[in-house]
Structures are given as C-alpha cells and as structure tokens.
Structure prediction request, 217 residues.
Amino acid sequence: RRMPISSRGGMLSILLVALCCAVVIAFRSSPVQKITPGTSHATSLRPLFSAVEQFLAQKAAMERDLREERAKTEFKTELNRFMSGQGGDSKLADEQFWNQFARGGLQVSSPQKFSHQSIVDPSLAAELQQQKTLLENRGFCKVTGLDWERLGVNLKGIEETMQNLKDNGWPPVFIFMFDEVWKYLDGVYDILRPLIGDDEAVLEHSIFAWALDKPPR
Prediction:
C-alpha cells in the first residue's frame, strides 16, 4: 500500500535532514590529510557521493508517486464517469487534453478510421520468408530495414511521450491514446502475419505498455 501524500512529504523532509547530518558527520570524522601529488580523495568521498545519489533517486521516486496520486485524485471522478459511459463531456475525451503530453509530433485525433498503409514492400517480402524459416528452425528471428517514418510512426516520440506521461502522474499505458501507437501496431501485424503464417491473428485485450526505470545504484 502507498503512504498518504502528507506522509510521503514528511518522509522527504526526514531523508533530507538525515542526508545533511550524514554529510556533517562525514566531514567532521574525516582526518585532516596533507594533499600530495598523486593522492586523490575521491575514494574516501565515494560513500558520500553514493548516499547523495541514493537520496536523489528516492526523492525522485517519491515525487513521481506524489504526481501520480494527485492525478488520480484529480481525475478519479472523471475516469469513473468515462468508464461508465457517462463522461462524454469529460476532458479525458478531449484530444487537446492528451496532446499536451505529446512529444515528437505525436497527436490524438478525433475518432476516425485509419487508412491502412502496409509497411511490407516487395523488397521486404523475400526477407520475411527467410526470417520465417529461421523462426521455424531456431525459434527466433530479426526483421530489419523497416521504414516506420513512412507510416508516420516516430518511435523516439513514442518513448518520450510515455516518459512525459509518467512525469505528469499518468501511467505509460495511456500512450494508447495517441494515433501513432495504433499505426505502429498496424504495421507490426503486417510483419507478424506472414511470419507466423496466420492471416487471422488478432490483437489480445491484454496488450499493455511498460516504461521501465533504471534502478538506483
């Protein structure tokens, strides 16, 4: 269970005070040494730097939790209305609300049908057949030379938008609000179907989006 917002705010203050005390103790307890050529104090200060890095990582994690909690609190009612089908006037149904989180040219458009544009051109068909053979024989394969930009898919923009959603308290799975993600999935299926030999492949409802953070040292 997550701590209440007030408790986490107090925890940040406690961590900051503890860090300051650790710095004071570290410097007071360090003996005065004469600096000679070839001598470095980096080794003796390394534990202090490690403590600072750990504190900053914990502080960033707590601040992100606070933003998530505020976003959930602010939009909980609207989310419930939206999911129940009564939130047609909700800002969550407004593309401009989501476009504020977009990076790299991503956008949320009004409901519309995408015109299918295949990412598989004649030059790629032969490679797909070769990769299918490798998949059957080795259990894995790798398809290269895909021109995602031709489909209007900016993979870097998708990554940056997921991070921006996280930074503003929204789970990265809301990346599915943006058009480019569905264009990407549409292109993936053009590759997937010939590889697995199934033209009836469908998108599972369990599809999700993760944005993993680098763990603190």
In short: The CA atoms of residues 77 and 83 lie 10 Å apart. The chain is about 55% helix and 0% strand. Residues 11-21+53-93 form one domain.
